[in-house]
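Researcher: Structure prediction, please.
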Amino acid sequence: MAKAKAKITLANGTLVVVEGSPSEVANTVNQLAFKSEMISKGEHATERKRAKDKKITTSPTDLILSLADGGFFKSSKDLASIKEGLAEIGHIYPVQTLSSIVFKMVRRRYLRRVKQGGRWVYLI
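Model: Predicted structure follows.
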């Protein structure tokens, strides 16, 4: 079987010697060329994959704060209203989940809580 040999000098000066069958050598040279191109662009294949896999997540607290920034709490709102406000922007949460989140926001003084007509309502 024919053996092939390739000597490659990388951009950083590293000398790579590849020996094997012609297809193995061609494969390795192509991989090195691809990686070298990615490094020269300032990207690594793993970085590209991580960036693609990264999801932007927003917590319910952040979503409620964004409602507050938009003037949602200018008038008092109960938990059902907060649930509807979040649903309008595409985030569905049960009232039971929102109850504990909103209460934590009250304790952290992001929101105020007042009792009106036997029900708790929230405002800024």
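Model: Residues 30 and 88 are 51 Å apart (CA to CA).
Researcher: Thanks, that helps.
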